């Protein structure tokens, strides 16, 4: 049986408390049935987590955009998975390409963060994806194989891990891979998960991320082994994000 689709919004470093009205609109749509047959997640900035949880309640999950690999300690400015859980988060994104690039996060660190997330009872959304230079060098599959091998915890539970395939060159650019490329890559990710984790690999949701918009969501979300989307820019406006949710089968 195919896993329940997940439509996840990543607000990145955007959003002030005055923007909570967008979440109110989303909560109302979810209350009216938008969340039937699909899981919906919003990852606001950490400063808005608590208020977002208050608004979205049980209809729409909230999540962090990153967590530290340690449970607590002398790590000024960082947030632990337990802290996210404490304010109502159910998920956390780890290994987003912006964290890998801006903060030099390695596959091994991403794996440690995913393990910390799972230990705290969160679902880890582990991001992988090739850069434009890697794609141009025909290295996409090699890069993804390395990231999957090294960023995913060994102790896998299909319900506690989500993999998000996000080609770096498609993030925030308006460019997307062809449907054939997405199908081919998601098939590869699925096969890799099943080879390593057995049947648990079939339960892992594989999201596509990178310039998902209301206009292309239906085509992307209909592809085999695309179990949802990780949406950046288009998640900031409730009407766009709702349209993307509605496009999921
Ligand atoms: C992202 O940052 O995860 C993302 C997919 O961004 P966008 O949808 O804006 O391309």
Automatic annotation (TrEMBL):
<protein>
    <recommendedName>
        <fullName>Triosephosphate isomerase</fullName>
        <ecNumber>5.3.1.1</ecNumber>
    </recommendedName>
</protein>
<dbReference type="InterPro" id="IPR000652">
    <property type="entry name" value="Triosephosphate_isomerase"/>
</dbReference>
<comment type="function">
    <text>Involved in the gluconeogenesis. Catalyzes stereospecifically the conversion of dihydroxyacetone phosphate (DHAP) to D-glyceraldehyde-3-phosphate (G3P).</text>
</comment>
<keyword id="KW-0324">Glycolysis</keyword>
<dbReference type="GO" id="GO:0006096">
    <property type="term" value="P:glycolytic process"/>
</dbReference>
<feature type="binding site">
    <location>
        <begin position="232"/>
        <end position="233"/>
    </location>
    <ligand>
        <name>substrate</name>
    </ligand>
</feature>
<feature type="active site" description="Electrophile">
    <location>
        <position position="96"/>
    </location>
</feature>
<keyword id="KW-0963">Cytoplasm</keyword>
<feature type="binding site">
    <location>
        <begin position="10"/>
        <end position="12"/>
    </location>
    <ligand>
        <name>substrate</name>
    </ligand>
</feature>
<dbReference type="GO" id="GO:0019563">
    <property type="term" value="P:glycerol catabolic process"/>
</dbReference>
<dbReference type="InterPro" id="IPR022896">
    <property type="entry name" value="TrioseP_Isoase_bac/euk"/>
</dbReference>
<feature type="binding site">
    <location>
        <position position="172"/>
    </location>
    <ligand>
        <name>substrate</name>
    </ligand>
</feature>
<dbReference type="InterPro" id="IPR020861">
    <property type="entry name" value="Triosephosphate_isomerase_AS"/>
</dbReference>
<dbReference type="InterPro" id="IPR013785">
    <property type="entry name" value="Aldolase_TIM"/>
</dbReference>
<dbReference type="InterPro" id="IPR035990">
    <property type="entry name" value="TIM_sf"/>
</dbReference>
<dbReference type="GO" id="GO:0005829">
    <property type="term" value="C:cytosol"/>
</dbReference>
<dbReference type="GO" id="GO:0004807">
    <property type="term" value="F:triose-phosphate isomerase activity"/>
</dbReference>
<dbReference type="GO" id="GO:0046166">
    <property type="term" value="P:glyceraldehyde-3-phosphate biosynthetic process"/>
</dbReference>
<dbReference type="Pfam" id="PF00121">
    <property type="entry name" value="TIM"/>
</dbReference>
<comment type="pathway">
    <text>Carbohydrate degradation; glycolysis; D-glyceraldehyde 3-phosphate from glycerone phosphate: step 1/1.</text>
</comment>
<feature type="binding site">
    <location>
        <position position="211"/>
    </location>
    <ligand>
        <name>substrate</name>
    </ligand>
</feature>
<keyword id="KW-0413">Isomerase</keyword>
<keyword id="KW-0312">Gluconeogenesis</keyword>
<comment type="pathway">
    <text>Carbohydrate metabolism; erythritol degradation.</text>
</comment>
<comment type="similarity">
    <text>Belongs to the triosephosphate isomerase family.</text>
</comment>
<dbReference type="GO" id="GO:0006094">
    <property type="term" value="P:gluconeogenesis"/>
</dbReference>
<comment type="subunit">
    <text>Homodimer.</text>
</comment>
<feature type="active site" description="Proton acceptor">
    <location>
        <position position="166"/>
    </location>
</feature>
């Amino acid at each position: 049986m195919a896993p329940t689709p997940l439509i996840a919004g990543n607000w990145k470093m955007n959003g002030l408390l005055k923007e909570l009205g967008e979440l109110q609109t989303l909560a109302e749509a979810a209350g009216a049935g938008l969340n039937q047959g699909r899981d919906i997640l919003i990852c606001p900035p950490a400063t808005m987590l608590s208020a977002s949880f208050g608004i979205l309640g049980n209809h729409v999950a909230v999540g962090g955009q990153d967590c530290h690999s340690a449970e607590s300690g002398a790590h000024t400015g960082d947030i632990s998975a337990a802290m996210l859980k404490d304010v109502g988060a159910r998920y956390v994104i780890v290994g987003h390409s912006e964290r890998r690039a801006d903060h030099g996060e390695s596959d091994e660190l991403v794996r440690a963060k995913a393990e910390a997330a799972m230990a705290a009872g969160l679902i880890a959304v582990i991001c992988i994806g090739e850069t434009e230079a890697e794609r141009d060098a025909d290295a996409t599959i090699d890069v993804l194989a390395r990231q999957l091998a090294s960023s995913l915890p060994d102790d896998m539970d299909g319900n506690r891990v989500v993999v998000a395939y996000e080609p770096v060159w498609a993030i925030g650019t308006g460019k997307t891979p062809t449907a054939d490329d997405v199908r081919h890559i998601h098939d590869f990710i699925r096969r890799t998960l099943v080879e390593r984790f057995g049947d648990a690999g079939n339960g892992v949701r594989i999201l596509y991320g990178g310039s998902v918009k209301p206009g292309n969501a239906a085509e992307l979300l209909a592809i085999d082994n695309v179990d949802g989307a990780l949406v950046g820019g288009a998640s900031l406006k409730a009407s766009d994000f709702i349209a993307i949710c509605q496009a999921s089968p």
